[in-house]
Amino acid sequence: MPEILEIEYYRLLAETALGREILSIEADQLASKRLETGIALTDIFSGLRFVAARRIGKLLVFDTEGPCFGLRFGMTGGLVVDGVAAIKGLTYGSESIEEKWVRARVTFQDGGTLALHDPRRLARVLVDPDEEALGPDALSLTLTQLKTALKSRGEGPALKARLLDQSAIAGIGNLLADEMLWRAALSPLRGAATLSEPELRRLHRHLRVTLDELFKRGGSHTGDHMEARHPGGMCPKDGQAFFRQAVGGRTTYWCPKHQS
């Protein structure tokens, strides 16, 4: 499923769509469900050009000479520009591109297209998305920003739940959160505000290293222990059977032996 690293690959591909005049934009009923009733995307964007492609967490934003055009990719969404996909496929998605799965399409005056492709129909298009609702971007997150994000009255919510909270830190998804906490030897059940200074520094270090390493290797679906991330999987670090439980509403795998 696309997390911050996959969306960064989408942003890089999106740069090939910049400077091209927009002829039309179409979106199906579900992809456009967050838009105000009666909004016609073609009426808003026809004749404009995408002048920049930005990413904030898992949100992709295209700046124009007028309103911004935003894309959210749900669980299996992908970006295709002129028939070229940004990545080969997602762990829980499909590697094929089929017309029936195209949820929104931008057609340019030169005949090229930019398409939002999503088999599960959870992807959405937005006009002037609320960027202020998102926390600092995980790819540039500082230690100070991490401390602020985890700060809470009392122990706070479970550590993993806070990492997944897009209003606290933008971009971290389920697979990345498990990977970071496994590498940092921290339990996902820990109260977010209970980390000591050394633990905060360790988490920040592994957060940055995990994002850097996995981006170079193709995305969050290629994590070091992902092959063992299944019922009955064993921790590759110490051989302990992984615990599997819901944390922050998401299926979580973690090692009870070295994550504390």
Helix content range of the residues, please?
10-25%
In one word, what is the shape?
elongated
Across the major sheet, the strand order is: 1-7-8-5-6
Number of domains: 2
What assembly state would you assign to the polypeptide chains in this entry? single chain
Report the order of strands and helices: HEHEEEEEEEEHHHHEE
How many separate helices? 6
Calculate the mean pLDDT score and round it: 93
What is the CATH class name of the largest domain?
A: Alpha Beta
- How big is the Rg? 19 Å
Uncertain spans, ≥5 residues at pLDDT below 50? none
In CATH, the topology of the largest domain is named N-terminal domain of MutM-like DNA repair proteins
Compute the number of strand runs. Answer: 11
Report the biggest beta sheet as strand number plus sense, adding barrel if it closes.
5 strands, antiparallel
